[in-house]
Amino acid sequence: MAELGHVVFYVRDLEKSSAFYRDVVGLNEIGRIFDGRGALFSGGRTHHELLLIQVNDAPGPLHGHRIGLYHVGWKIGNHLDTLRGALRRAENFNCRIDGLSDHTVSQSLYLRDPDGNEVELYVDDPDYDWDESDDWMEAPVQKLEL
Q1: Please, what is the end-to-end C-alpha distance for the chain in angstroms?
Q2: Which end of the chain has less Cβ packing within 10 Å, N or C?
Q3: Rounded Cα distance, 53 and 48, in Å
Q4: Among candidate residues 139, 70, 81, the one with its CA nearest the CA of residue 110
Q5: pLDDT value, residue 50
Q6: Higher local confidence (pLDDT), 18 or 126
Q7: In what order do the strands lie in the sheet with 7-11?
């Protein structure tokens, strides 16, 4: 069985990006590598789900209709109150908020990290059994009000 192990982002400012993924997303910083130019983060599932590597000033990320990474999604819980807390943390961090969506099976907050990468924070709907029904795949995405 394959599962996503980790994601690596090149970042301009390791401290600012580390604060975002720790304080807004809710990941734990596990340690620093590459003579302090890299930071490892975990949500507790494995040794690290995210690695940030500081490259200082460099172009990117690409935006709009293009080939490549669109966004990274982090499940942060099963209740809308958890998502409301994430929205408050994002606003306090002055994050760019791209939107809120109800996907039937889950509810999501879309925001940008300090380098402009799109990040989805979501909670699964505890009343929806996605393992038993796939009708959520055809359901239209609705605007979410928090």
Answers
A1: 36
A2: N
A3: 13
A4: 70
A5: 97
A6: 18
A7: 7-11, 50-54, 38-42, 28-33
Of residues 19, 5, 8, the one with CA closest to residue 114: 19
Do 36 and 87 share a structural domain? no
Strands 50-54 and 7-11: parallel
- Same domain? 46 vs 17: yes
pLDDT in tens, 77-135: 999 999 999 999 999 999 999 999 999 889 999 999 999 999 999 999 888 777 777 77
Residue 120 to residue 117: CA distance in whole angstroms: 10
pLDDT tens, position by position, 21-39: 999 999 999 999 999 999 9
Where does a domain end: 12, 28, 57? Answer: 57
Residues 79 and 143 in one domain: yes
